[in-house]
Amino acid sequence: MNARTLKPALLGLAIAVIVAACATTTSPTGRRQIVGGVSQEQLDQLGAQAFAETKAKEKISNNGAETAEVRCVVDALVRQLPPQWRGVRWETALFEDKEPNAFALPGGKVGVNTGIFSVAKNQDQLAAVLGHEIGHVIARHHEERITRQMGAQQLLGLGAAIAGARYGQGGADMVSQLGGLGVQGLFLLPGSRTQESEADVVGQQLMAQAGFNPGQAVDLWQNMIAAGGARPPQWLSTHPDPQSRISELRRRADGLMPGYQAARKAGNVPKCG
């Protein structure tokens, strides 16, 4: 085997080794996922560390009513989670920040900016936000993202080494720079859009099961669009196109209404706001 055919063979072998080091699973929506780059314990530690750093850096809100509403909505959603997630000690924090944003991290950490109340006008709309964020956690999106990034970094390092062996340091540097752009634009970001859409599905189902009106997810995103300004092109965004997102949320809401009504009759009637 000559050098020209050896390099692709080595690249194929490296890809096989990287994939073999990971595991394949199925997401809550039936999507194939590659995970296993980190353990659940490591994920929980990373989540706890990130949450502690955010609390140390950001100002905690002293608005008792809003803090209680966030806690109430989270508790209602958590009661509908699979057993392995209900057993987690979920912690919330409300940050004094005008940006309408929220997040959930492995280990049961939920952070919300006070600005979210400028677009989430009632408890159901707040549940749409928090259901979506918790959906990222229970769909193992953080683990999936870390696993992908680890694989991408290893492949880029191998590509740079091969280019460096043939073209010198300049070739290695070029592969690293251009390769990083390619992975970001064509590999990591499309995965992020997939995860965002999946979190919408999981979160809307979760809010309906908890007794929150799933149709309010549509109103939430209409409020988000009204409050937002310029946004990057869809192909370079980590979120789906807003109008497409609203159409999907509206379509799913119709199918979720019977389950929502059944949940209410069964006693899941949150009174958070």
TrEMBL record:
GO terms, molecular function: metal ion binding; metalloendopeptidase activity
Cofactor: how and how many bound: Binds 1 zinc ion per subunit.
Cofactor(s) the protein requires to work: Zn(2+)
Coiled coil: none
Pfam family of the protein (one): Peptidase_M48
Keyword Glycoprotein: no
Domain Peptidase M48: 66-252
Stored InterPro entries: Mito/Outer_Membr_Metalloprot (IPR051156), Peptidase_M48 (IPR001915)
Transmembrane segments: none
Signal peptide: 1-23
Record-linked Gene3D superfamilies: Metalloproteases ('zincins'), catalytic domain
One GO CC term on file: membrane
Listed CDD domains: M48C_Oma1_like
GO terms (BP aspect): proteolysis involved in protein catabolic process
Keywords: Hydrolase, Metal-binding, Metalloprotease, Protease, Signal, Zinc
PANTHER family, A to Z: M48 FAMILY METALLOPEPTIDASE, METALLOENDOPEPTIDASE OMA1
Family to which this protein belongs: Belongs to the peptidase M48 family.
Name of the protein in its database record: M48 family metallopeptidase
Species the sequence originates in: Pseudoxanthomonas helianthi
